[in-house]
Amino acid sequence: MAIKLEKLVKTYYDKLEDGKVMGRKCPVCGNVEWPPVYACNACGSYETEWYEMSGKASLVELYMTTTMSAKPAYKPFEPYAYGWVKAEEGPERNVMIRNVTKQNEAYVRAHLPYPCHMEIVQCDGYKSCVFAIDPIDGEGNPITIEKKAAPVKKEEETPAAEAEAAAPAAPGACKAKPETVAALIKLAAESYKVDPATLSAATVFETELKAPSVIFVGFCAKIEDEFDVMVTITDASAAKTIGGVAELVDKLVEEG
Ligand SMILES: [Zn+2]
Known about the structure:
Largest sheet: 5 strands, mixed, barrel
Number of strands: 8
Oligomer: single chain
Bound molecules: zinc ion
CATH superfamily of the largest domain: ACP-like
CATH class of the largest domain: Mainly Alpha
CATH architecture of the largest domain: Orthogonal Bundle
CATH topology of the largest domain: Non-ribosomal Peptide Synthetase Peptidyl Carrier Protein, Chain A
Distance between the termini: 17 Å
Order of helices and strands: HEEEEEEHEEHHHHHH
């Protein structure tokens, strides 16, 4: 089966720079995949094509966070909550949803599914897509939310204790090449804005590098550039640790 090899992640990010959020549409059954993946999850066809998302979506479920994260990577996104959204074209996903506040939470909750939209935001060095509702007050009246200062401040946290807590990988646990692990630690440190000394092959993305998934996607895009390989977000997420992703990268490089 001929699978057209295109750099999905790179193309996706290049299009974001042009203000377009791209998915993949299946010409066989019409199903749309977002974030873009090659194969159609509805009928299994590999012949999906680029498709510009309308950006319209519905917030189906809402989860409030008790406190905003202290991580600087989150700052430009405030105020936000998390929610289950369904894009107009069908794809559903658990995402960050901006402009939901303690003041308007009850109103939004009472009006689910609530209209929302994709929003392209500037991260450190790349653009990303998050979701947002139009800013409203507690009665659903439109309001203006003051823009947060855009530059993301560099963070000087990483107490020694935390650094020590990042346990080194057990010998033999990670089969990836040491140079691959070292390169990924460098890329992860850049993406997550942490001290590389706190990272190891054993670092778990989900629990130890808590950040919006857009940061992980950006990390994958950096890997694609650095190693000239295609990384699917699904495979990379399944790898869980830096060492796991390194093994994946080694495998992809080997396969050419
Ligand atoms: Zn299909």
